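Side project, low priority. Logging it here so it doesn't get lost.
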Amino acid sequence: MDSLIMASAIGMLLGGCASSSDDVGSIYVSPLTYQSYTCQQIGQEAERVSRRAAEIAGVQDSKATSDAVMTGVGIVLFWPSLFFIKGDGQTAAELARLKGEFETLEKVSIEKNCGLQFRKPSAPPNAS
């Protein structure tokens, strides 16, 4: 019975681990936000959003790595350390919003025939 309770607790805690930045989905952002933007403004905003998303993705990946390490330590050595797993929070929410903004900017750019090239934001190589 004790092992069943322990297994259930570990399972619930593992579900609370922070997600990788790649696993954070985007949230809907209304295109009305950017309808009055010129193509130049759309490009500038997309650049700003992409840069911020890359920064936040690095932070999110760092949290995911930290949670994975803490989970390994908790399962193998000291189960109370599982209570220190951070999970997703404000960082994941901001990243989801930024991904949504980026997608919306791309759609508005296409609708306005801006001819801008959009590349999906990614974490900088040294962001750990």
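Brief comment: The chain has a mean pLDDT of 73.
Revisit when time allows.
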